[in-house]
Amino acid sequence: MAYFDNAKVGDKVYGFVFGKGKIVDVFPDSFYSIMVEFKNGYEVPYTADGIPGWGNFKKQTLFYRDDIDLSDKDFSPVTKVLSIKKIIKLREANKLEIRVPSGIWKSIKKVDPDYVEEMLEKENYHLFREKKSKKKSKKEKKSKLKKDKS
Questions:
Q1: Are residues 9 and 24 in contact, defined by beta-carbon separation less than 8 angstroms?
Q2: CA 27, CA 34: separation in Å to the nearest integer?
Q3: For the range 108-114, what are the long-range contacts, defined as Cβ-Cβ under 8 Å and sequence gap of 24 or more?
Q4: Global pTM?
Q5: What pLDDT does residue 112 have?
Q6: Consecutive sets of 10 residues in the chain, 150 residues long: mean pLDDT of each?
Q7: Per-residue b/e over 38-49, b at no fewer than 16 CB within 10 Å?
Q8: For the residues of 55-122, what is the DSSP string, one character each?
Q9: Cβ distance 23 to 10 under 8 Å?
Q10: How many CB atoms lie within 10 A of CB 21?
C-alpha cells in the first residue's frame, strides 16, 4: 500500500521543495496518481509514494500536512552572503547548507546534487550558508540561566 492511495481532491499536503500545497486532481489508473498545486502556482504530478514527476528524485518529498512537524526546521534568513571560495571550502568540509525552495535549510548531502550544482552555476550564493553548530555558546547558556531564574 502506497502513502497516497487514499488521496482526495482538496487534501492539504507539504512538499519539501515547494512548501504548502493541496491536491487538485487524482489519477487512480496512472503512474502519477495525484496532481498538487502549490502556493507559488506550480502544479506537480506525484506518484502514490510521494515522488515528484520532475527532477531526479528517488525518495518521497511530499507528505500530508498533518503527518509532519516542521516546528524544529530552520527557516531563518541568511545573515551573510558567502563568497564562492568560502562555499567551496565549506563544501569540502561537509559544513555547507543550502536553502531549498520551501525555505528550509538542508545539508547539501541531503539535497539533490543537480539542484546544488544548478544554484552554484546560476551564482545564487545567497542560498548557501555555513552549518550552525549544535553546541550552545557560553553566552547563550548564561542568558538561558538568567531567564530561568526570573
A1: yes
A2: 6
A3: 112/55, 112/56, 112/57, 114/55, 114/56
A4: 0.57
A5: 86
A6: 90 89 93 93 93 86 85 78 93 92 87 90 92 62 53
A7: beeeeebbbbbe
A8: SS--S--EEEGGG---TTS--PPPSSPPPHHHHHHHHHTT-EEEE-TTS-EEEGGGS-HHHHHHHHHT
A9: yes
A10: 24
C-alpha cell at 92: 569540502
- Look at residue 145 in the predicted model and tell me its pLDDT: 54
Separation of alpha carbons 44 and 35, rounded Å: 6
Q: Give the CA distances from residue 148 to residues 22, 72, 134, in Å, rounded to whole numbers and listed in that order.
A: 41, 21, 21
pLDDT (0 to 100) of residue 46: 95
CA 22 to chain centroid, in Å, comes to 17
Query: Which grid cell is 27?
Result: 489519477
